[in-house]
Design a protein that fits this description.
single chain; 276 residues; alpha/beta; Purple Acid Phosphatase, chain A, domain 2; 6 helices; globular
Length: 276
């Protein structure tokens, strides 16, 4: 596969690349459709409205999968409609719940870019597809790994943020970590040879996570709907509110980030649920 690169971010000023991440919207064709007691269109609507107040200077929004829950064209159109209200361009990945061909067709029709390699002055952002069709866990195909190799070889001095759907390291939830990125070791081996700073950003786990392992910083972010309870061996929902993540990528390789959330109790799930 060819690495198709889109220039992104400032070429002057302070050189800081500003990104926002939105993930795991789990939308339905029906705007009132619920996932474990949360009406996902309404919770996403609230997150998008809140994001509008915090997007000044943002260069791009990364949508990291599970945008649909029912794999309907209408669910993707709902996502497109809300993203159209935001000024920064949106770049996306499929998650395990998405119907990738339909997703691409609907987002293409709406003019949401297909670019998966974004090149700034000091950073590159690579969106890699971890969807393993028919499975909850993820896997990077040989083609996706080849794209990573190309990005590392072509831009060895650029700091690198890799966006994926599935978590590449355990987050401490036994039931979630069995649905991880199965060949995360191949990702890690490639990142280990990159000479600049490295960050892996994911969705999928419906919770905030921020750890450095082997010199690589791993981040996960809350969903716009239900949240999974951290450090829980069995399936459990959390009381924290829906949210999103903001990231500032500095020329020297530093990264500062913040998770934003809606007010407490804005969308309360069905805590009696034992799975989904």
């Amino acid at each position: 596969m060819t690495l198709s690169t889109l220039p992104l971010g400032p070429r002057a000023g302070n050189g800081v690349l500003e990104l926002s991440q939105i993930t795991d919207t789990h939308l339905f064709a029906d705007r009132d459709g619920e996932l474990l007691g949360v009406a996902t269109w309404h919770s996403c609507r609230a997150v998008v409205d809140a994001m509008k107040e915090e997007l000044a200077g943002c260069h791009a929004i990364l949508a990291t999968g599970d945008l649909s829950q029912d794999q309907s064209a209408e669910s993707y159109r709902h996502f497109v409609g809300m993203m159209a209200e935001l000024t920064p361009p949106v770049f996306w990945l499929p998650g395990n719940h998405d119907e990738a061909p339909l997703m691409q067709a609907e987002l293409d029709a709406a003019g949401i870019g297909q670019a998966k390699h974004l090149l700034g002055e000091h950073w590159q952002v690579l969106l890699l597809d971890t969807q393993a069709r028919g499975h909850t866990h993820g896997r990077l195909s040989d083609d996706q790994l080849a794209l990573l190799d190309t990005a590392i070889d072509r831009y060895p001095n650029h700091h690198l943020l890799v966006a994926v759907h599935h978590q590449a390291v355990p987050v401490g939830c036994a039931w979630l970590d069995q649905h991880n990125l199965r060949n995360a070791d191949e990702l890690g081996a490639r990142l280990a040879r990159h000479r600049a700073n490295r960050v892996v950003l994911c969705g999928h786990v419906h919770q905030g996570f921020d750890e450095v392992r082997g010199g690589i910083r791993y981040l996960a972010s809350p969903s716009t709907c239900i949240q999974f309870k951290p450090l829980s061996d069995e399936f459990a929902l959390d009381h924290t509110a829906p949210g999103w993540r903001q990231l500032s990528l500095y020329p020297d390789g530093r990264l500062s980030t913040r998770v934003w959330r809606l007010p407490p109790n804005a969308f309360v799930p069905d805590f009696s649920a034992r799975g989904y």
